[in-house]
Amino acid sequence: MARSGDEATAIRAAEGGAEKSAYVREAFSSIAPRYDLLNHLLSFNIDRVWRRKAIATLAMDRKPSGTYLDLCAGTLDVSVALADLNRFACRVVAVDFAEPMLRAGVSKILRKPVAPVAGDVLSLPIASASVAGAIVAFGIRNVSDVDSALSEVHRVLEPGGRLVILEFSTPRSPLINTAYQLYFRRVLPLVGSVVSGHPTAYRYLPRSVANFPVMEELARRMRVAGFSRVKWRSLTLGIVAIHVGER
Ligand SMILES: C[S@@+](CC[C@H](N)C(=O)[O-])C[C@H]1O[C@@H](n2cnc3c(N)ncnc32)[C@H](O)[C@@H]1O
After folding, report:
1. Is residue 142 within 6 Å of ligand 1 at its C-beta?
2. Ligand 1 contact via 98 beta carbon (within 6 Å)
């Protein structure tokens, strides 16, 4: 059993070890009540801008009705923004395997066409070629098998449907990266552990980013999974990247 408070387990999980899935589920379940607060605090609220830009990249006006997937949906911020943006013409299915994360966000979706589903992105309970588009914000890095997740999303998208990935990356400039790593590896884990009460979740975060494929590599793996028209761009000095591809 992957105990999420254990430092060695957190390190192995961040490196993609066999316990990753259990670690991630347990850690997010535990930090769920403080997740939103920490997100906005630790990113100085820029996370809202990043999510907005990723949602714009989904270009929902290409397919203004139908079902959209918010994968690794967490506390449902992306789902709410999708539902609001599209003026209720679409339906959003929000999938996450940590039920407490979905529960922490459920008050945001009252009277909105958002259906939270406790499920695993690696095995979506969704028919092939049935969804108009999919987005995953700060989630794919946490999935134990990125390639299988990409293939699974490709399976459920309609032809022409887009997948948008918003994820942390590593700044290219050595100067900026040095300052950023100081914050990411020292300040963030300290504040994260004090506010969330979880001893390792915010240590796992920078390590999981360091172990995540660089932007070109993620784009290559999207193509291997079958996506076409794959593009990406970096935001905020390379701290995050948005990738997009089409089935
Ligand atoms: C950093 S949170 C991101 C939440 C939200 N998308 C956001 O933008 O704030 C990552 C989420 O991915 C979920 N997750 C990780 N692996 C998963 C999987 N295989 N299937 C479903 N959810 C998964 C975790 O439970 C967690 O809620």
Report:
1. yes
2. yes
- Shortest-distance Cα residue to atom 17 of ligand 1: 143
**Residue from 36, 72, 153 to probe ligand 1 pocket by mutation (most atoms less than 8 Å from CB):** 72
Residue 167: closest CA among 234, 228, 224: 234
Q: What is the pLDDT of residue 87?
A: 64
Q: What local confidence, expressed as pLDDT, does residue 5 receive?
A: 64
pTM of the shown model: 0.94
> In the chain, which residues have pLDDT < 50?
1
Q: Which residue reads 């390190």 in tokens?
A: 11
| pLDDT for the residue 120 | 96
122 Cβ inside 6 Å of ligand 1: yes
In the DSSP assignment, the letter for residue 239 is: T
Candidate of 4, 46, 47, 97 to mutate for ligand 1, largest count of ligand atoms within 8 Å of Cβ = 97
What is the 158 CA–ligand 1 centroid distance (Å)?
23
Per-position DSSP letters for 49-110, written without gaps between them: HHHHHHHHHH-GGGS-SEEEEEET-TTSHHHHHHHHHTTTSEEEEEEES-HHHHHHHGGGGT
What DSSP line would sit under 32-57, residue for residue?
GGGHHHHHHHHTTTHHHHHHHHHHHH
